[in-house]
């Protein structure tokens, strides 16, 4: 039986925790994914000082981030759905899938709101022409619905 490894998250990791959290993960997950991508650092007794400093900095950012997130939520809620043109076959099936990066770029261009592609939640891959309801995680508890319409490129 393998022993779990304690790490300190330096960034938000979906389904694991937020920056500054101390979590226990499998050794391979820490060694092969979290540490190389600088999403976490190994936990040591001396790292508690680093954790406290990181949480203090995050607390200052969160106040400003919440206001920004509410402004972005207002922009996403207003007006028409986000339109994305993609190459499609005769039956409306796309050549490939719509990515979160494409959606984020379209939102920035059409609504003027900048969102992180990692914050867009897609339940199922978008592989055909149509209208889709997505969710954008703007802040810890703040989410916003996003309507995306995929059209066939002419």
From TrEMBL:
Q: Signal sequence: where?
A: none
Residues annotated as coiled-coil are none
Give this protein's Gene Ontology molecular function annotations.
Answer: rRNA binding; structural constituent of ribosome
Q: Organism's domain of life?
A: Bacteria
Q: Where's the Ribosomal protein L9 domain?
A: 17-44
What family name appears in the similarity comment? Belongs to the bacterial ribosomal protein bL9 family.
Q: HAMAP family in the record, alphabetically?
A: Ribosomal_bL9
| Task of the protein | Binds to the 23S rRNA.
Q: What is this protein called?
A: Large ribosomal subunit protein bL9
Q: Which organism is it from?
A: Mobiluncus holmesii ATCC 35242
């Amino acid at each position: 039986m393998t022993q779990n490894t304690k790490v300190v998250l330096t960034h938000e990791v979906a389904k694991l925790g937020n920056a500054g959290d101390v979590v226990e993960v499998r050794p391979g997950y820490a060694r092969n994914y979290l540490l190389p991508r600088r999403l976490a650092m190994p936990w040591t007794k001396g790292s508690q000082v680093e954790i406290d400093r990181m949480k203090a900095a995050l607390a200052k950012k969160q106040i400003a981030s919440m206001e920004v997130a509410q402004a972005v939520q207002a922009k996403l809620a207003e007006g028409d759905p986000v339109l994305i043109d993609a190459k499609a076959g005769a039956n409306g099936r796309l050549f490939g899938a719509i990515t979160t990066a494409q959606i984020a770029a379209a939102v920035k261009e059409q609504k003027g709101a900048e969102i992180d592609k990692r914050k867009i939640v897609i339940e199922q891959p978008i592989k055909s022409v149509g209208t889709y309801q997505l969710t954008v995680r703007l802040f810890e508890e703040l989410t916003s619905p996003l309507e995306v319409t995929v059209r066939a490129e002419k």
